[in-house]
Amino acid sequence: MQIRRRRSSFWRVWGSALVSIGALVVIAAAAALMMFAASAAEAQEIPRRHDGRPDLSGTYDIATLTPAQRPDRFGDRLELTQEEAKALAEHWSTNFDKDHAPSDPNREAPPKGGTGIYAPEFTGAAGKVGGYNAFFVDIGTGAFQLDGKYRTSIVTDPPDGRYPPLSELGQERSKRVAPFRHENTGTAWWLELPVGPYDDHELRPLAERCILTRGASGPPSMPGMYNNLKTIVQTDTHVMILIEWMHDVRIIRLDSEHLPDTIRNWSGDSIGWWEGDTLVVETKNFREIPGSVTRGSRDMRVTERFSRIDAENLRYEFTVEDPAYETAWSGEYPWPATSHKLYEYACHEGNYAFGNIMRGARLLEREAIEQGTSGGSTGD
């Protein structure tokens, strides 16, 4: 009888334990189901195409007061405080209002030749000879946020948020461009150079010729001083990005191969593929831009990642591998959706200044020849 009682007690205890374990399993399964349901609901919140891929289509305004490179005072600090972000927005708002004040009709004329865009006192477009004021500029009204935090810069790697040092190749390119970076003295200083920046219209910067602004067009695509809209159109086989500034178009072939190395474009050759819900785009086969140091070499390779933050906003990430720099560098920032329409940036049709630039150069050269002097050094 004693043995039976012990056995009976044993089974009662063991049975209770099994019931407890079973309850825990049920609770864990229910919790997992709830997490799965929440995850599924979250995944359904972003727009998707018929094939289940995220729909990236839309128009986005990437204007932001956050700079590409981090100001030195922030060091390795990635984020701004709420107070710093507010102060930045207020500072720009004050300057914007000041620049909109009526012009003084009795103000003095600008110095001959302007101040030159490389002069220390240069603060605006066209070398202070009557260029753009704040009316024409659209750089946003505040710093951008990612993951609920304001950022100090777009560049995130290196950790100091700044471009890496130039490599030997980059320094050599910089030396070739250096003679072209000259203060505008109103003289034909370039006559002392073997090849001057005004000797041929094709030697002028691509942006000045209304052909391309690689910073705005990308890759990587960066916010500019104005016209920061991007429109994405997505199909099963291609993704098209229409860039407002210079009215440029990027065509990204999905699940394709790169063109032969002999075929090169200003914006490179882009192919893309999906990694989960992220569109990865790789671009290579660039043409080197004349007179540029910071806009990438012909051997640059850029990897971009587009993903949806929510139904309205994209997350844009990029990594640049360029032998012109000592190391690769990366960055990220949001692409917020906008209801604004992207209109044609009709640059070439109104680019009357370009003809005047070349005519002005010929005039200064004639004056220098008549005076028997080029009127200045190269600034080396």
Write up what this structure looks like:
By secondary structure, the chain is an alpha+beta fold. A 10-stranded mixed beta sheet has the order 1-6-7-8-9-10-11-12-13-5, with no helix packed on it. Strands 2-4-3 form a 3-stranded antiparallel beta sheet. Helices cover 25% and strands 19% of the residues.
Brief summary:
The protein has about 375 residues and is of the alpha+beta class. The chain contains 5 helices and 13 strands.
Index terms:
380 residues; alpha+beta; ten-stranded mixed sheet; disordered C terminus
Strand content: 15-25%
Largest sheet report: 10 strands, mixed
Structural class: alpha+beta
Q: How much is the radius of gyration in Å?
A: 29 Å
User: How many helical elements?
Assistant: 5
The tally of beta strands, per DSSP, is: 13
Give the overall silhouette: globular
Low-pLDDT windows of residues = 1-7, 33-43, 116-125, 376-380
How many discrete structural domains?
A: 2
Mean pLDDT: 84
Within the largest sheet, what's the order of strands? Answer: 1-6-7-8-9-10-11-12-13-5
- What distance lies between the first and last C-alpha atoms, to the nearest angstrom? 110 Å
The helix content, as a percent range, equals: 25-40%
Order of helices and strands: HEEHEEEHHEEEEEEEEH
List the helices and strands and how they pair.
Elements: H1 2-44, E1 58-61, E2 79-80, H2 82-99, E3 145-146, E4 149-151, E5 155-157, H3 168-177, H4 214-217, E6 229-234, E7 238-243, E8 248-254, E9 269-275, E10 278-284, E11 301-308, E12 313-321, E13 329-336, H5 352-371
Parallel strand pairs: 8-9
Antiparallel strand pairs: 1-6, 2-4, 3-4, 5-13, 6-7, 7-8, 9-10, 10-11, 11-12, 12-13
